[in-house]
Amino acid sequence: MLLATASTAAAAPCGDSDEDGCDDCALGEADPAMDGPDLDGDGLCDGGDPDQDGDGADDEVDPFPRDRFRCGDADRDGCPDCADHGHQELADDGPDLDQDGLCDLGDPDDDGDGVVDVHDPEPRESNTCGDLDHDLCDDCRIRNRRFPADDGPDFDGDGLCDAGDPDADNDGVDDTGDVATRDRFRCRDLDEDGCDDCAVLGRPDSAQDGPDLDADGQCDRGDDDDDGDGVPDALDRNPLVRSSCADADADGCDDCSVLGRADTSRDGLDTDQDGICDLTDPDDDGDGVDDERDPEPLDPYVCADTDDDDCDDCAVLGRADPRQDGPDLDGDGLCDEGDPDRDNDRVLDRDDVDPLDPMRCFDRDEDGCDDCSVHGRSNPRDDGLDTDKDARCDLTDPDDDNDGLTDEEELRLGTDPLRRDTDGDGVSDKDEVEAGTDPLRPPGPVAPVDTVDTADTGLPDTDESDPPPPSCGCAAASGPAWPAALLLLGVARRRRSLMAPPA
To answer: Residue 152 domain-assigned?
Structure first.
């Protein structure tokens, strides 16, 4: 100590070029970098260094200006600001579990869970802080902060965490007796019917504990025949449909399809009653046409029109027969509906005055006689009786036999209007009338003279029974009139027969 003092006393001051408060020659030679003690090695001698220990805290406020790891607690968090790094670092002045800027030493809530450490059962575990709502779930379990309403899984959403909820699924059955504590539709089966009492309502109700398809009092789950069709579910190919169960007779029809219960004798619709149910019958209506080609497979009177006559081949017989597929007046194989000439009189129906009568069609030659009246087909040249072959039918011919006497004259005379020579004597009726002879009586041999007068009348017997005809050639007014009457009757009948339509 004495030596150092002597040396210092021997050195003369030389100035302070670096203005660090220390003379450059303080240690002997002029050297600004070595002009005095420098604790933190920053080039400033301690005498002129405001922060001798270089901890970032000025010596004026640093309670320990020559200890870099001790500089005070500016943020008052209970941790020395220089304790960790040897320089002042307020935000990193010690362990900080919750990263809130306060070192754990001075942080009242180290884990940042919202519960001060003195009340926190685990002050360094953010997911554990206590159970204020007493639901057996820690209030910080989910959010790592105190949140009693969200402190654990709550299956039924009733505000109680499952760990502390006596009925976690809220089905009305305590978890201790609940077969599925996380399924409200499963709880128990008090009536032992095979169905869970909660299956329907989500709460226990033995009377409504499962679907009962056949309403037999047994829920389907415990019913061995759910649809009540008489076939056990294990053998029923459709246990939930009464109309479908099995096909024991292998006929292609379900044994339950008709009655809703198994009956092989009545197991499907059989439209044609042929013993084959429609399901497998290739011809359901039995009309002879397969269903694939039949436009109405269930109607035996509708099948097809193979002859294109507009009549269904099955319309009459209920089976396919193109030749008997509807009324056919003329029997030509075409049904009337599709026949353009139904009476086959060779006149199209649109031109025929009576399309259903072959003896009537029209009078093309306008001779008063229908052109079809004789042959049942149109023939104007032979359309009615033409006695005299003059191409004019008798109906409108004024002289049917062309003997020169009109039909009216012959009716008055009593001669036959259809015979030129009524009495067949070789002379026409007109010639006899003009000659003054009787056209009703042919000439014959001279009769012998009768001289016998049995009645004593003064006349021969022959004259008494058959008086001579008058000289006019007509029957005597007082004589028999039957020849003329019979002739007129015959003419009338013949005319009626000609005018009447054929049968």
So the answer is: no
